[in-house]
Structure formats: C-alpha cells, structure tokens
Write a structure and sequence with these properties.
Elements: E1 9-13, H1 20-30, E2 34-36, E3 39-41, E4 55-57, H2 60-69, E5 72-78, E6 81-86, H3 87-95, E7 99-103, H4 106-115, E8 120-125, H5 129-139, H6 144-158, E9 166-169, H7 173-188, H8 197-203
Parallel strand pairs: 1-7, 1-8, 2-7, 3-4, 8-9
Antiparallel strand pairs: 3-6, 5-6
Helix pairs in contact: 1-7
Bound molecules: guanosine-5'-monophosphate.
C-alpha cells in the first residue's frame, strides 16, 4: 500500500486586484486534494463575501485574543486591519494529506517560510501596473483612498517578489491556472516529499 504523504503547504501572494481569488476558486473546483485556508480578518465584509467562507470577520479584540492564545499560525497588518491564518485547521489538513493554500500578503509569506521551510511560495503578478489599477477599479469595491493605498502596497509587494520560489503572470486566467497547477504537480513529484517511493519500488519487484 502506498504510504500517505503529508500535504504540501502552498503560499499564494500578489498585489490586491491581481486575481488571487479567481485563480484559487478555479483551482479548488478542479483539484479535490487542494483546499484553501479560511483567514481571519478585522476588515469589514465587502460585496457578497460570506463569514466563515471568504473570511472569519472578527473584531480587533477577538483577533488580539487569538494572537495572545497562540492560535494564529501567522498574522500581519494590512491597510489598517489584521489578517491571519488560524493554525489548527491548517495542521489538521496537512496531517490528513490535503494540500493547503494560504492566500496571504508578503509579511505573512515571510513568516511561513521561516516556520515551514518546505512550503512552496508563489507570487502572482499582473501583466503590468496599469492592468492592476484597471482591474481594481473595475472591481469597484474600494473608495478612492483605499484603492490608491492598495495600489501603493501592491507596488511594494511586487518589489519583494524575488523572495518567492515561483512567479505566475495572471494575464489570461486559464494560463495562470495551468502554471499554478504545473508548479503544484512538480512539487508533488519531488523526491524529498516522497521519501518512501524508492523503497516501495524496490519492494514491489
Ligand atoms: P483583502 O482585503 O483584499 O481580502 O486582503 C488584503 C491582503 O491580505 C491580501 O494581500 C490578502 O492576500 C492578504 N491576506 C488575506 N488573508 C491573510 C492572512 O491570513 N494572513 C496574511 N498575512 N495576509 C492575508
């Protein structure tokens, strides 16, 4: 019988408006072994976002209590709000062999790199800054001040893209999805993640 591998921890970062949510929703639709961790945030829900599905929307007091309890795997402040990954569900999924994606910003990604050196980190890039701005405006979920602040943070984040293992350019969503799936496929085939494979082949004469 094939021994079960631990799941792979995958980090997806990229500037606000570059299409991380769209890529991820399509990824999980076609890959049953991949789940996206639901983050906790103190920002208010936007558009049709659902509590418990898109985020756990909480108060600052509650978030700070969770930090103090040590329940957060990582957290960061982004544009005046806390965002963080609850630790227990991620560990449970990884231990059951599920591959878990964290859709987080660059400070959180740096923390995960320290905690999980075998995590795979991917940076989603827009084809250009002009396209990024156009997409954020078309989304229409932010007022002008928030939008320009998000663009500014996005530029700073792009400057840190070289800290990541892989990049994917989100020009056409189909291509971005294929690239992302290819990265995950290659990672699944790494010898270091499949220590038992050689013994299994030898014992299966
Ligand atoms: P948004 O408000 O657009 O949903 O998210 C703002 C930024 O916070 C995005 O870059 C998103 O990836 C990031 N983010 C979402 N959840 C988390 C999290 O749990 N931890 C960290 N560090 N960043 C997060």
């Amino acid at each position: 019988m094939k021994a079960m591998n631990k799941g792979i921890l995958i980090v997806l970062s990229g500037p606000s408006g570059c299409g991380k949510d769209t890529v991820l929703s399509q990824l999980i639709d076609s890959n049953e072994d991949i789940k996206v961790s639901v983050s906790m945030t103190t920002r208010k829900p936007r558009g049709l976002e659902v509590d418990g599905k898109d985020y756990y929307f909480v108060t600052r007091e509650y978030f700070e209590k969770k930090i103090a309890e040590g329940s957060m795997l990582e957290y960061a402040e982004y544009n005046g709000n806390y965002y963080g990954t609850p630790k227990a569900p991620v560990d449970e999924m990884l231990n059951s062999g599920i591959n878990v994606v964290l859709e987080i910003e660059v400070q959180g990604a740096a923390k995960i790199r320290q905690l999980y050196p075998d995590a795979v980190t991917v940076f989603l890039l827009p084809p250009s800054l002009a396209t990024l701005e156009k997409r954020l405006r078309e989304r229409g979920t932010e007022d002008e001040e928030t939008l320009s602040h998000r663009l500014y943070i996005g530029e700073q984040e792009i400057l840190r893209a070289s800290e990541f293992d892989y990049y994917v350019i989100n020009d056409k969503i189909r291509d971005a999805l294929t690239d992302f799936e290819t990265i995950i496929k290659a990672e699944k085939l790494k010898i270091t993640r499949n220590k038992n494979i050689i013994n299994e082949v030898i014992n299966n004469v």
